[in-house]
What does this fold into?
Amino acid sequence: MEIILSKQCESLTGAISTDLGYFLVNRKGRFFSQRSRHSVPPDGHWRFILCCANLAQTRLYLTDIRVKRDELSDALYEAHHFIAATHLRLPIYNARDILNLKNTFSL
It folds into this structure.
């Protein structure tokens, strides 16, 4: 997942929450999610994506996220949201798409 920072934020790395199992890394000026080497809860990936989508709506630190369909599908399957995972059609999902998916399938 790629993180798009707001103009007010030059860098954002590290854990958003310690119980999700994911953190943000800087790779050549672009920001991405990274899976922790330690234990990751089954729904940690999905909750991390959702957390970033919610942060993007505030537009304070993030303005958007980009999640490829395969990554989102994996996150939903890991979280046991099978029906939502089978209804993914777009090649890339942004923050608004993620929040719409959450509301549509009551996740």
Observations:
- The beta strands are 2-5, 22-27, 30-35, 62-68, 92-93.
- Helices lie at 44-58, 69-78, 82-86, 95-104.
- The chain has a mean pLDDT of 95.
